Amino acid sequence: MSIDLSQFFDVFFEESFEGLDAMESELLSLEPGKEDQETINTIFRAAHSIKGGSGTFGFTAVSDFTHVLETLLDQIRNGERQLTAEHVNLLLKAVDCLRAMLTALQAQQEPEQEEANELKLRFEAILNGDNASSSQAEEVSEPGESSSLPITFQIDFKPLPYLFKTGNEPLFMIAELAELGELETQVLHDELPKFKQLNPEDCYLYWRFFLTTTRGESAIREIFEWVEDDAEITIVQCGGLFEEPASEPSESDTQHPPGEPESQADSSALTKPVQEIKKESPQVKDARKNADPSTTSIRVGIDKVDSLINMVGELVITQAMLSQIGEQEITESSIAALQEGLAQLAHNTRDLQENVMRIRMLPISFVFSRFPRLVRDISQKLNKQVELKLIGEQTELDKTVMEKLSDPMVHLVRNSLDHGLETPEQRIAQGKDPVGTVTLNAFHQGGNIVIEIMDDGKGLDTEKIRNKAVQNGLIQEMDELTVDEINELIFMPGFSTADNVSEISGRGVGMDVVRKNIQALNGSVEVSSEAGVGSTFTIRLPLTLAILDGQLVQVADHTYIIPLISIVESLQIDIAKVSNVGKGLQVLRLRDEYIPILRLYDIFNHRGAREELDKTLLVVVENDNYKVGILVDDLLAQQQVVIKSLEANYQRVDGISGATILGDGTVSLIIDISGLIKLSGLRRPGSSELLVDLKADEAVTA
After folding, report:
1. Cα separation of 559 and 669, whole Å?
2. Which residues 6+ apart lie within 8 Å of 499 measured at CB?
3. Strand order in the sheet with 626-632
4. What is the pLDDT of residues 641-682, one digit of tens each?
């Protein structure tokens, strides 16, 4: 009976990547000479699991590479070798290499071997070198430990009947045994029942092995540790060195059960040369070709599943009640019961929606977990001492948002390390702790998640930023800007204050991309800074991209949706406070600001809309720290809407971020504020800057 191994691929890759994350996290916490034994064991177990799983699925490149670093870890945890900083750095590189190899395999591609081979040689050089503990070289090996002379072991392996149901395969254990030395295998089947009594899912065979090896008993037991609770295992040294293995099993040991015909494939497959066993099986090869790398999964807590089941149960009860009412004669009492049932249905539907959305929510620690390694590597390159603090790691965020948040956060953290934090010498000269601090903080605020990237460095150099902006033609020398406005210039395309181009910074293609990526998530990013104290970048994002809280507005015969997160206020227009600034643009003086008025009917070419300002409403929205007013005929209801992609279902439309279906079945478009401003011609092309200075009184003319 062949098993389709591809069904387990997704689980294997998911668990392997989790194992690599655990290895990386534990390696970063290690201090050579002060290492914790449990930490070493955790790293070893993760490597061992990846090796065993990859060997099972025929990913021999991964299993062979992992075997070498697993050997080094085994020596360290057994006290045979002292952990050094070189070992930690090499193991971290091995984690990166394994992650790349597994990613390639998941994408049905052959992994690159060049880096793996180079690292493997370095591991082997350490293992074959003279830096193992001297006691190991001086003392005579105890029986059962590694020896320069081969020893023969007799290994009896008798699985319990349910072994196959645990997913374990004896053939792979035999292959691993053969890697330790010269192996002879005997199959014993005296417990094999008659054919009619045979259960194909049970294991009736057991094995006796004679292994001649220079490795110790611990290496043998390590192979069987996967099944030590599911089998009877006996390992005995055969009398001494070079002892001949026991004689071949007698005829009685190998005879078939009485009354059963001999099978041509009785045990030959189980005693065939190990070289054949080690080859990748055709099933595995076919499974690898058919694996879908785009398949993703998400782990859901049982409490969320239970809650979802309860909600579905409530829906079923409500549906049954409504069906019963529908079968009755319509009366005043039945109408009242129907209204009550519909209200209950709306309540249950909302609860079900919220519970389904909870399934997509994951703790932001999935993003935060990549930064300890990043901070360590970059701080070493920059010769800076950095402490990373993580706050609010359990704050939950939609998986889709989280996947797109990682790259902008990486750039902001790299920016803090490179531009923000000073060198230890500079910090000491300023009376600061030589160790700089970068803090990542996440918390919920209203219907949004707020993420702060803070550092206690030198802060933004406003004079340098202004000079660079003038030099690059982004602003004029005579422009008067506040400190906050100068700081905002770092988000303009092509802006960089780096004096030297390096792999970390200096190409001027970063902060504007960060802002665009975050705006694509319907979010915003802003910066605050104080000279000599540090900087804080604040990212605000919706909790999910699947559902939007929106304000429905009427324009002529059309209904649009404006995201509530963008709305500052809605008001009736005071004609006396409206002025013209040229090119057909009007602005409303609102307190101490001038708000450009965008006529939605004009931008989208609608006829029949109200054009008189005193008969319309203005929805004031904010984008990129600028406020604009959207002219609409009327405000309708506020509601949550399910977002559908226009680009995926139709085509990209400027000024529109998506669409939704309303309760009456009509399609309503969701307005993209940034795109609408660009479409109106108000924003300067390729910039976040508006074409008019809306804060200067002299810019407004009648």
Report:
1. 7
2. 506
3. 567-572, 617-623, 626-632, 593-599, 586-590, 578-580
4. 888 877 777 877 888 888 888 878 888 999 988 788 888 877
Closest by CA position to 168, among listed 309, 305, 374, 8:
8
Q: What fold characterizes domain 547-699?
A: OB fold (Dihydrolipoamide Acetyltransferase, E2P) (2.40.50)
Cα 19 to Cα 25: distance, rounded to the nearest angstrom: 10
Model pTM score: 0.57
Return the amino acid letter for 74: D
Beta strands 524-530 and 534-542, pairing class: antiparallel
363-542: in CATH 3.30.565.10: yes
User: Residues 22-35: pLDDT tens digits?
Assistant: 888 888 888 777 77
Distances in Å between the alpha carbon of 118 and those of 65, 93, 94, 274, 690? 10, 11, 10, 27, 54
542 phi and psi angles, rounded to 5 deg? -70, 150
Tokens 């092995």, located at residue:
209
> What is the C-alpha separation between 511 and 489, in angstroms, rounded?
10
Q: Which two tokens stand for residue 678?
A: 């660009």
Strand partners, 628: 621
Distance in angstroms (rounded) separating the CA atoms of residues 601 and 556: 7
The reply to whether CATH 3.40.30.10 applies to domain 139-247 is: no
Separation of first and last alpha carbons in the chain: 87
Six-digit token pair at 183? 């192996």
d(C-alpha 297, C-alpha 353), whole Å? 20
Query: What DSSP element (H or E) covers 467?
Result: helix 462-471
- Which superfamily is assigned to 5-130 in CATH? HPT domain (1.20.120.160)
**What is the residue-averaged pLDDT of the chain?**
78
Q: Give CA–CA dist 514/524, Å, rounded.
A: 10
What is the set of active-site residues? Answer: 48, 70, 415
281 strand-pairing partners = none
If you ran DSSP here, which 8-state letter would residue 149 be given? Answer: S
Strand-pair partners of 529: 535
Euclidean distance between CA atoms 49 and 14, whole angstroms: 12
